[in-house]
Amino acid sequence: MTDATTANVDPHLWIWGWKDEKPRLLHTMLRVKDFDASLRFYVDGLGMRVFDRYEIESRRASCMFIGFNDYAGGGLIELAQYWDAEGPPTHGSGYGHVAIGAPDITGMLAKLEAMGVEVTLRPRALIGAGPRVAFVKDPDGYAVELIETRSDQAVGG
Amino acid sequence: MTDATTANVDPHLWIWGWKDEKPRLLHTMLRVKDFDASLRFYVDGLGMRVFDRYEIESRRASCMFIGFNDYAGGGLIELAQYWDAEGPPTHGSGYGHVAIGAPDITGMLAKLEAMGVEVTLRPRALIGAGPRVAFVKDPDGYAVELIETRSDQAVGG
Predict the structure, then answer these.
(1) C-beta of residue A50 within 8 angstroms of C-beta of residue A39
(2) Which of A 115-154 lie inside 8 A of B, CB atoms?
(3) Which member of A17, A115, B21, B93 has the lowest number of beta carbons within 10 Å of its beta carbon?
(4) What is the ipTM, given to two decimal places?
(5) What gap in Å lies between CA A1 and CA B82, rounded to an integer?
């Protein structure tokens, strides 16, 4: 039956694949107020790409998938707008952040700052001689952590 | 300088790597009330593994990294407890969920339900003949989406 079933799979709907053997993390979803503002931050600022946009009638929502990898590579962000949402997204104390590996944290942060992005923690090592970490806010106020992932860019390197 | 710098890198602190060429999504952080309850859900229930636990004095927080992959593979979740937190994590309207690819969504959901996990959406295709999707709640009330990622387990397959 596998062949017959696979033949019926629409890849545009089964975007996360239809032959996985094991579970994996696919994406993190954030409700946003303004797709254009989010794309300026995540695409123009951080360098992500836009993969797809869907209008999901059954959930009364629009969503866009963005990330550095493709669907198979995982680690995407889903930006969502609910058609009947009342007011902009609000924040509790629970959700923390997404963390992005930044080979050049200094350059990435400089670019974001030039775009007017709010920096809430300037680069510093949080534990001993570990990588430097910075925090910024996306257009909806979600925290985004930048973690240095290349040591020859590090202080003293 | 690269060799000298790399020689100084402590892999236990540079857990996300120190030779990355490109940015990538590393993890999603959620504040939780009770690590043990979270581990029952994410490890015993969903099948993730625990990688490391850190006590971060400078942030007055404890954190654990869990996931299906290792650090290099990305797509991890950071569970965090802030030492000075007042009360359990609260939820706004903004943060949505993490989505997990489930080759066997029926089996995964049955296991979670047997553990007493709350199911907020039973498996159904959200768009046409796409994969079935379910929603459950983790012990802190965060939504977790399960997306079918194997078509020969699908209805009629």
Answers:
(1) yes
(2) 126-131, 140-142, 145, 147, 149-152, 154
(3) B21
(4) 0.92
(5) 50
Residue B118 appears among annotated catalytic residues? no
Give the residue carrying structure tokens 């940015």. B23
Q: What is the mean pLDDT of chain A?
A: 91
Give the residues across from A137 on adjacent strands.
A143
Contacts of B127 in chain A (CB under 8 A): 13, 54, 56, 58
- Residue A154: the pLDDT is 58
Segment A85-92 mean pLDDT: 95
pTM of the entire predicted model: 0.92
Q: With b meaning 16 or more CB within 10 Å and e meaning fewer, what string describes A117-130?
A: beeeeebeebbeeb
In B8-91, the DSSP E strands lie at 24-31, 49-56, 61-67, 76-82
Q: Which tokens belong to B140?
A: 């802190």
* Cβ neighbours, 10 Å, residue A147: 24
Which amino acid belongs to residue B113?
E
Q: Is A66 in contact with A77 (CB distance < 8 Å)?
A: yes
Query: Does the beta carbon of B26 lie under 8 angstroms from any beta carbon of chain A?
Result: yes
